[in-house]
Amino acid sequence: MQRFKWFPKTLFGRTLLFIALIVVSGAVALAVIARYYAGVASQRAYDQLLAGATIQVAEDLYVQGGVLALNLPVAALSTLSRYDLVYYKVVDSRGVVVAGYADLPSPASSAAARTGPQFANAAYQGQSIRTASLARYLPEEHTPGWAVVTVAQTTHARKQLTNDMSFKVWTLIFLMSLLAIGASGLAIRRGLRPLARIETIIAARDPADLRPVAADTPSEINAIIGAINGLIGRLAERMTAMQRFIADAAHQMRTPLARLDAQIELLADEHDPARLAARLEALRTTCSDVGRLTGQLLNHAMVTHRTQAVPLQPVDLVALAKEVLGRAIPLADERDVTVTFASDAPQGYIAGDPISLQEALSNVLHNALLHGKADDIVVSVATAGAPVTLTVTDNGPGIAPEHWEAALRPFERLGQEHASRRTGSGLGLAIVQEVVKAHGGSIRFAFPPAGGFAVTLAFPPMPPL
């Protein structure tokens, strides 16, 4: 579009230009057609006069003493000479010119002229002429046969009539084109008024007003209103979720920070070495909780951003699982943890964001190691069929079925039976849920028959390239 700087940037200008181009193209085509038919009409009109004069001349031929003679019909020729110069020629059966202009061309043959007047275009004395030839059989001549009469007329009057008719039709086409373009402009401007009204309504709104736009508009614009209201609805949901997340995060951060401040105050007044060591350990644990919570909040914000802004790309789920598994093992601290990895294929590709997927799998392993206190973890990838699944199975206590839905919501506290998990922020599985949802997949919990607890992440397979 930058190549054509003259191209209008407004919807009104572009639409009107498009209509104007169509109208002008149609007008040019009509002008050409009108010019053609004007020429045909003038040709036919003057050919009728020329044919009449030629027939009149042929009828006035007579034979005297065996010699062809002509009683020239002045009235018939004067009808033609009123508009143009007129020439004639009479040739007897012997081919001798007995009257008229001997050098006048006669394009039509004698045989063709016997069937009726034959018309042709020619040039004579430097001018364009139109000729009509007609043959008449005269048995009274010394040599009985066909005499040929040729009458010619210059074409000035024909051209003048063609120009006059063309000009009148062209004037009408021009006026109708102007009327069509003007009416189109008024119709377009009137049709765009609802859009201007919607613009005024939206521009006058407060940024915090996320109610649907209500306006009386034509049905064609209802789709735009629906799309705007859909966007406003999604924006309202996103803002509500963000506000709720910020409020929950502020609440979650306030508690450990207050605990941290109290522990520092107690530490300042403690002189007993044994109690001092215990308070330092408690302070260290609280700092760790604050750091972990802060990291999860940042990770949640990062995942939310990437699911909306980063395009998906081919990701090898097998390689990604191995990489994340290698980084997560140190979280077990001093415990002896057995880790097993299995896959039904050396590679398993899905369309995804590798960073978000790494964060999701890290959180699943983090929950199993730190909150589930598991010491036997099996990570398996199944690529056969659809969907592609990644399952983390551990020998921890797991989550009771009645808490599965709550475990996927941020900052949800599980029941008292999960006291070992109460130190968590409740963000880990919420991050996993958001990542899997952004990839068009799902998350499932299960208690396998062999024992333990399993978390399965299911993803649609990579579409064929």
What proportion of the residues is helical, as a percent range? 40-55%
Give helix and strand order, one letter per element, not per position: HEEHEEHEEEHHHHEHEEHEEHHEE
Second-tier CATH architecture of the largest domain: 2-Layer Sandwich
What number is the mean pLDDT?
A: 83
Uncertain runs: 416-424
Spatial gap, N to C terminus? 32 Å
Pfam family, one: HisKA
Domain Histidine kinase: 248-463
Protein name: histidine kinase
Keywords: Kinase, Membrane, Phosphoprotein, Transferase, Transmembrane, Transmembrane helix, Two-component regulatory system
Compact overview of the structure:
With 465 residues, the chain is an alpha+beta fold.
Keywords:
465 residues; alpha+beta; Heat Shock Protein 90; 3 domains; 11 helices; 14 strands; 52% helix; rod-shaped; HisK_dim/P_dom; His_kinase_dom; two-component regulatory system; phosphoprotein
Question: What are the SSEs and their pairings?
Answer:
Layout: H1 11-59, E1 61-64, E2 67-70, H2 74-81, E3 86-91, E4 97-100, H3 110-113, E5 118-124, E6 127-138, E7 145-154, H4 156-191, H5 193-203, H6 219-268, H7 273-309, E8 313-316, H8 317-328, E9 338-343, E10 349-352, H9 354-371, E11 376-382, E12 388-394, H10 404-407, H11 428-438, E13 442-446, E14 453-459
Parallel strand pairs: 9-11
Antiparallel strand pairs: 1-2, 3-4, 3-7, 5-6, 6-7, 8-10, 11-12, 12-14, 13-14
Helix pairs in contact: 1-2, 1-4, 6-7, 7-11, 8-9, 9-11
Plain-language structure description:
This is histidine kinase. It catalyses: ATP + protein L-histidine = ADP + protein N-phospho-L-histidine. The chain crosses the membrane at residues 12-38, 169-188. It comes from Trinickia dabaoshanensis. This protein has helices at 11-59, 74-81, 110-113, 156-191, 193-203, 219-268, 273-309, 317-328, 354-371, 404-407, 428-438; strands spanning 61-64, 67-70, 86-91, 97-100, 118-124, 127-138, 145-154, 313-316, 338-343, 349-352, 376-382, 388-394, 442-446, 453-459. The protein has 465 residues and is of the alpha+beta class. The protein has 3 domains: 14-163, Beta-Lactamase; 209-309, Helix Hairpins (Orthogonal Bundle); 311-465, Histidine kinase-like ATPase, C-terminal domain (Heat Shock Protein 90, 2-Layer Sandwich). The protein has a 5-stranded antiparallel β-sheet with strand order 4-3-7-6-5. It has a 5-stranded mixed β-sheet with strand order 9-11-12-14-13, covered by helices on one side. The chain has a two-stranded antiparallel sheet with strand order 1-2. A hairpin with a 6-residue loop joins strand 6 (127-138) and strand 7 (145-154). The longest helix is centred in the middle third of the chain and has 50 residues, at 219-268. The radius of gyration is 50 Å and the shape is rod-shaped. Residues 416-424 have low confidence and may be disordered.
